[in-house]
Here is the input.
Amino acid sequence: MRREWRFGSSPGPPGLLPVDPRVCDAPRMDDYRDVNLANWNDRVAAHAASPDYAVTRFTDDPSFLSEVVSFDRTRLGDIAGLDAVHLQCHIGTDTVSLARLGAKLTGLDFSAPALEQGRLLAAAVGVEIEFVESDLYGAPDALGRERFDLVYTGVGALCWLPDVGRWAEVVASLLRPAGGSSSARATRSCGR
Ligand SMILES: C[S@@+](CC[C@H](N)C(=O)[O-])C[C@H]1O[C@@H](n2cnc3c(N)ncnc32)[C@H](O)[C@@H]1O
Here is the structure.
């Protein structure tokens, strides 16, 4: 039994500190997904305008790649013609960069405003990308299993997920079985 009492009730047992009800109303850990989603929705406008994401450079320069994908480029090898999915794609700057390397891209994220920004960017630079709204753990249902040659997730994505083991299961289920001419690859950016 929790040993606490609230302001406004009769005096509690001696020796126990009062609990401020505002603390009790604060988001709890089981609200994690909602709090995290609200946080990412909030960041979209600021990121779209931020020089760090360099959105205008994509429209100014058709060969421009994001810093994240530039970093990963040698690890990725030749991705031209691959069916690729970018998990937790955010506002699409890395997704567009992967498309510029020749892959056929799908971007997935649970933030609707982030995806909207991604669609605007893709349209502005003239690349065809399907942006799908889904929780990461719902990706196999939202996208279909064994559909992709490459699953990509960039730096700063995994840390927002509560279960990395389940993330790996999602990645495995999205990849086409290796063999024959297919080259199933999962790539995670290591940092910069
Ligand atoms: C830092 S951003 C992606 C990193 C990427 N390198 C970038 O900066 O564009 C993290 C993304 O993860 C998404 N995200 C967090 N938790 C998620 C979940 N459970 N399912 C789907 N997307 C999620 C957020 O909406 C956000 O767009």
Q: What stands out?
A: The two ends are 47 Å apart (CA to CA). The longest strand covers residues 104-109. The CA atoms of residues 29 and 53 lie 30 Å apart. The pocket of S-adenosylmethionine is lined by residues 36, 40, 68, 88, 90, 93-94, 109-111, 114, 135-136, 154-157, 160-161 (CB under 6 Å).
